[in-house]
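Q: How would the structure tokens look for this protein?
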Amino acid sequence: MSKAELMRACERAGLPYAPIVRPDELFDDPHLNASGGFTEITLADGRKVKTPTLPFEMDGRRFGAELDLPVAGSHTRALLAELGFAAADIERLAAAGVIVAPA
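A: Here is the predicted structure in token form.
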């Protein structure tokens, strides 16, 4: 089958597919855009961007983004505390620049 024939066969059968494209062409894909194949996230600098979702559905809906991407170091204090570091030790590490831990 040619690429066009295979795409028509997939369409007739109701099978999801996408031709292989360059990453920058992905966001213009009519099937992904029509089927909810993208979700929006907010980057650390406040910009909102769309990103592809996983190609799975459960109970008729796609999985989207649950959370935005965390800022570097945003969980450092909590993780170190869970590992048993005392708050004063965490503060000393942050003050010395050993860890990234925004206040």
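The chain has two domains: 21-65, 70-103.

The chain has a mean pLDDT of 88.

Upvote if useful.
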